[in-house]
Specification:
about 30% helix, 3 domains, 4-stranded antiparallel beta sheet, alpha/beta, Glucose Oxidase, domain 1, binds zinc ion, Aminopeptidase
Length: about 450
């Protein structure tokens, strides 16, 4: 056991080292290169879904690729260089090649003044824009004058890429394990999930389990929505699932429950964590975060939770979405321990075979016409195109500042015809006024009735 343990930790870390330098995004060659590397480990099937295809309320965007990006200061010195860190470019930047003044340039630079030595990770997928990210300390060194900015990127017709691998069990019922493949060079938030699922797949691929186990490697949000759209008729086979992310840091485990809250997966994860006597915390489902928010949208409400270590967007993980989430931040032993927990959870589910008595629970949809109902039940509606979502992604993890946005997510997620606005306020712990306000915005935008 001990020896095996080291092997698994080493293998996962080595794979992470290979994947770390690649500049990924929600589409493009970075995702393809990543999936090709994983394909050397497990027989991944790679899918391409074309630009412009409608997937529920969303549309596959143009494909983004980048060669280079830099800023040259008035003295001819390269002060920002994509070749040194792919976080330096606003992810999905349109191409630019210009000389501009410092005051103009400043509008396109992102920093984190509170973490002045870290480069932030910022995205602009659905609003065409360009920009650079740098440490605040280096930004303070920039002087007035004329700068040269160049982003050698392409945004054109192409496709969205994702990977999938199914290990057939005795039963056609499935355990779904999902991770995302869209972040550039960051380890805990993103690569840890990829290397963990690859290792789990390697472990189980020649074993005959009761359950079939499906692994998906998808771009976050749009990739999850696309995958669900392409596989809608098979979703009823999914009996349990986990979204794997943030699994390589030295913090304690965090389990985010499924929307159902008391599904077999929730009970099993908590049972395994308790049994192993590791420190952990559980958090109730909340309708933002990673792809569980699509799997658990009211139209599907799948029993899918997320087992992490230090959770994104919390004080436990200040390096989240910055250059601080690098290879040094990852501990092999933590990856190893996470791997073991996932293994035990899968084995426990497999042993219990709860699906033998499994009935698909018909969700009772109330006829009470006074209750609000979300008009798009399948995955999230695309709020950005309706002007009710912040334009830039990545940073902005401040709960207070994002309260209005969170209220909108809660109303959308819980307006399935069974909850009143008071119920939603109670479950979300947000003031009723905020929830009412969110409901009014959504009614105005024809997303709620
Ligand atoms: Zn992230």
């Amino acid at each position: 056991m001990e020896e095996n343990s080291t092997i698994n930790g080493d293998e996962m870390f080595q794979l992470m080292e290979k994947l770390y330098p690649i500049c990924r995004s929600i589409t493009g060659d970075g995702v393809r290169e990543t999936l090709e590397i994983i394909k050397k480990e497990i027989p991944l099937k790679i899918h391409e879904v074309p630009t412009e295809k409608k997937v529920f309320d969303w549309t596959i965007p143009k494909e983004w690729n980048i060669n280079d990006a830099y800023i040259i200061d008035p003295h001819g010195k390269k002060v920002v260089d994509f070749q040194k860190s792919n976080l330096h470019v606003l992810n999905y930047s349109i191409p630019i090649d210009q000389k501009i003044s410092f005051s103009e340039l400043k509008k396109h630079i992102h920093t984190i003044p509170e973490k002045p030595d870290l480069i932030p990770y910022v995205t602009s997928y659905y609003s065409e824009n360009w920009g650079f990210c740098m440490t605040h300390n280096n930004f303070l060194k920039l002087k007035e004058g004329e700068y040269t900015v160049k982003i050698d990127s392409k945004l054109e017709e192409g496709s969205l890429t994702y990977g999938e691998f199914l290990i057939s069990g005795k039963s056609e019922f499935e355990i779904l394990l999902s991770c995302y493949v869209c972040h550039p060079s960051m380890c805990n938030d993103n690569l840890s999930g990829i290397v963990l699922l690859t290792q789990i797949a390697k472990h189980f691929k020649d074993l005959k389990n009761h359950y079939s186990i499906r692994f998906i490697f998808i771009p976050e949000t749009i990739g999850a929505i696309t995958w669900i759209h392409q596989n809608e008729s098979n979703l009823s086979k999914i009996k349990h699932g986990l979204v794997a992310t943030c699994l390589g840091d030295s913090g304690k485990f965090t389990y985010k429950k499924s929307r159902q809250g008391n599904a077999e997966i929730d009970k099993t994860v908590i049972k395994i964590l308790k049994k192993s006597k590791v420190k952990f915390k559980t958090v109730d489902f909340f309708p933002w975060g990673s792809d569980e928010r699509q799997f658990c949208s009211p139209g599907f409400d799948l029993p899918i939770g997320s087992l992490m270590r230090s959770m994104y967007g919390t004080e436990d993980f200040p390096e989240y979405h910055t250059s601080g989430d690098n290879l040094e931040y990852i501990k092999k032993e933590s990856l190893e321990e996470s791997f073991e927990k996932y293994l035990e959870i899968i084995k426990s589910l497999d042993k219990n075979k709860p699906d033998i008595n499994f009935r698909n629970i018909k969700r009772k949809i109330s006829k009470n016409s006074k209750l609000h109902k979300n008009l798009i039940q399948k995955c999230e509606p695309q709020l950005g195109k309706r002007g009710i979502y912040r334009i830039l992604g990545g940073q902005n993890n401040n709960f207070e500042k994002r309260k209005n946005e969170f209220a909108i997510f809660w109303v959308l997620n819980l307006s399935d015809g069974t909850n009143s606005l008071e119920d939603i306020a109670n479950r979300s712990n947000l003031p009723l006024k905020l929830i009412e306000n969110a409901a009014n915005i959504l009614i105005e935008k024809h997303l709620l009735k």
